[in-house]
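quick one before i forget lol
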Amino acid sequence: MPLVETESLVIKTYNLAEADKIVVLLTRDHGVVRGVAKGAKRLKSKFGSGLEPFSTVRVEYFEKESSELVSIQKVDLIRSSFEAASNPDFLQKFSYLADLLITFSPPHDPNETLYRMVKACIDVGCDDADALLATGVYFEIWLLRLSGFLPDWSRCDGCSRVFEIHETAVVQPDMHLKCIDCRRSAMATVITAECRATAVDARKFGPAEFAKLTVDRKESLRFLSETMKRLIAISIGREVAGEKSLAISI
């Protein structure tokens, strides 16, 4: 039963029995880990405020070969998101993103790129409430990309021609793009050159830079957000709840 110590993000918590909690962590070194924090609900818990959702912590836990749940022994708070999480918009956005992360991430599958992306998005969301729309789009695009579900929007899916910089395209039911000449229906959804450029920028820059670049692209961000949700639904085989869920602790 080895002791593991790693930096982690607290993604979600659930009440367990009278005094304990189940905690979902995104760890830097071991991917998504679920664990039991015994006594976490007591007033004088040794975990203190270290299990607040979306906080960055250093955690120590024991792994048990016969159990899917690890035993959390110690949590040291690195950065709290308590103040940001008191904003309903932040809570709504990141509760939704947390659900997406859990859905797309297999347990105990290390991915440092994913960890750094999620941590950077939380940091931006904490520092700039006006960047929540851009941060959500960035998160969705990168989660789909890292999971292998993001189509190549640089070229037409019909004729394979690379799109011109200022060229509009159409979105197919499978979320691939086709040029105007290759489209099969005049009713197909049009995606502007700015929307395509915004999606490319999300892959080129960090979330803070992306939020600054897209401050005047609200319509493009909203279009991409809806499009990414459709692609997510196709990828997981069901509709996503969107950002209506606020349940981060049950």
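fyi The chain has two domains: 1-80, 85-244.
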